[in-house]
Amino acid sequence: MADHTADQSVPHARTSRTGPDGDTARNTSAGQGISRRTLLGTAGATGLVLGASGGAVGYAAAPAPATPLTSVGADRVMFHGKHQPGITTPLQARGHLVAFDLAAGAGRKEAAALLRRWSQTARRLMAGEPSAERDTDVARDAGPSGLTVTFGFGHSFFGRTGLEKQRPVALDPLPDFSSDQLDRARSNGDLWVQIGANDALVAFHALRAIQQDAGGAARVRWQMNGFNRSPGATSHPMTARNLMGQIDGTRNPKPAEPDFDERIFVPASGADGPAWMADGSYAVVRRIRMLLDDWEQLSVKEQEDVIGRRKADGAPLSGGSETTEMDLEKTDAGGSLVVPINAHARITRPDQNGGAAMLRRPFSYHDGIGPDGVPDAGLLFVCWQADPLRGFVTVQRKLDRGDALSPFIRHEASGLFAVPGGAAEGTYVGQDLLEA
After folding, report:
1. pLDDT grade, residue 3 (50/70/90)?
2. How far is CA 396 from the centre of its chain?
3. Is 30 helix (H, G, I), strand (E, B) or coil?
4. Residue 68: band (very low, low, confident or very high) from pLDDT cuts 50, 70, 90
5. How many CB atoms sit inside 10 A of residue 236's CB?
């Protein structure tokens, strides 16, 4: 898990972010970017306080100007664009993954209406506005807080909607792996939604709005909650750590790399799939339980040998810093490989897998402690690639043959989803598929 990725760092709170198409994704000016939701929330609260004070001295208080949002609250990601949000967006502090199945009798027409509603709601919420109908006010006092909402289609969706001929070959079911102990009820689904934000209430608000929008067209199949480090929690941007305490994300492909788009996104030419998937990507979702009681019995040296990197700073055991290229041939004084032959970081290196690469964008999860005192915790693994057979499947097959990390993890749920390109202004996600 630790080395499929590139540097997934949490930016400083006041660092501007640029979206995948070069658009600035936030506005940190003190007097700008205040949403209607925030304006109403802060002005209302201020008026109540001043009204009480004014009553005591005989004055009717006028509403005070709304307090500008903090940098985290003002962070906005654009909904419309070449690619859907939530793929190259920096890691968010809170996330929800949810899969839906279409209701009995619902087909292509109902699915199109649903995606239209969902897209409209996502656009509004990501702008810091209330949902169009029945807004719950959960996020009334907050700004967009980096909210993203991402939509995808599962293998079964195409049969349910009569669109089998439009199903991509790349969406063929994933093969079985030896570490799988999958709960089928918490795997796959007709539709998939990924929600991320840097505020827990903003993320929940979006989850609730998406569920309400589903109405009678679809029902929740499964739902999972995750988290990451909050922006500004470290003194400088750092690669995230997982619940094993390991720096996790050092070798993620970076958007600045010249071959990033061809490895992560489906080409617009249509050569690698149906035209409706142009500029889209494929998401592999795995709920990976970490057997933390067993892992924590290992010494730090033993943990480092399992991963192939130093726990303190993520540097390879062959030396250097976190970003130093790993020397796979280096040996110690006794002639043994410094990076063990079955180390996780060695096995997952792209140059050891025919160049296979995927953009990992996970969340950690903790779903409580069982009667036996064992935590149900681990990683909501989400990775993005132009072709899952060349990306996730290639690497996972190799891990299956002898990864030192395998005894300490268990894959308990799985899904593969086709995530189309972003929606242009005036359109909705998946429109090219559903209205072709």
Report:
1. low
2. 19
3. coil
4. low
5. 8
Residue of 248, 305, 387, 432 marked active site: 248
Element (H, E) at 97: strand 94-102
Q: What angle do CA 369, 374, 378 make, to 5 degrees?
A: 80
3-state secondary structure of 309: strand
Helices and strands, counts by H and E, the chain: 11, 9
Residues contacting 198, CB < 8 A, separation 6+: 72, 75, 92, 93, 94, 145, 146, 230, 231
Helices (H), 161-291: 200-214, 260-264
CA distance 334 to 355: 32
Give the CA distances from residue 64 to residues 46, 101, 194, 417, in Å, rounded to whole numbers and listed in that order. Answer: 6, 47, 37, 48
Alpha-carbon distance 345 to 18, whole Å?
30
Handedness of CA 201, 206, 210, 212 (dihedral sign): positive
Work out the number of other CB atoms within 10 angstroms of the CB of residue 9: 17
Q: Which residue is listed with tokens 């033993």?
A: 302
Which of 338, 98, 72, 114 has the alpha carbon at shortest distance from 213?
A: 114
Lowest mean pLDDT across 240-254, 278-292, 313-327, 343-357: 343-357
β-bridge mates for residue 409, sequence order: 290
Q: How many CB atoms lie within 10 A of CB 361?
A: 26
Residue 250 CA, chain-centre distance (Å), reads 17
Query: For 215-325, where are the E strands, in sequence order?
Result: 218-227, 281-290
- Single-letter code of the amino acid located at 68: P
Mean pLDDT for the stretch of residues 2-31: 40
Q: Cα–Cα distances in Å, from 427 out to 106, 121, 280, 424?
A: 22, 13, 15, 6
Pairing of strands 94-102, 409-419: unpaired
State the angle between helix axes of 108-126 and 200-214 in degrees (0 to 180), rounded to the nearest 10.
160
Strand, helix or coil at 25?
Answer: coil
- Share of the chain residues as helix, strand and coil, in percent rounded to the nearest 5: 30, 20, 50
- Please say if 248 is a catalytic residue: yes
pLDDT value for 317 = 98
Counting Cα atoms < 13 Å in the Cβ hemisphere of 399 gives 29
For the segment 189-219, what is each residue's pLDDT rounded down to a tens digit? 999 999 999 999 999 999 999 999 999 999 9
Average predicted confidence (pLDDT) for the chain: 87
